[in-house]
Design goal:
This protein has 42 residues and is an all-alpha fold. The chain is built from 1 helix and no strands.
Amino acid sequence: MTKKILAALLLTGSLMVAACNTVEGAGRDVQSAGKAVENAAD
């Protein structure tokens, strides 16, 4: 039973780390697009 709980915690932690990286990457993409629009407007 302890092994199942540990495995579930490790899986959850891995998914959370992957999600953070994905959101961070999306944020950089949006920021980059915003800068491109801003530069085009100048």
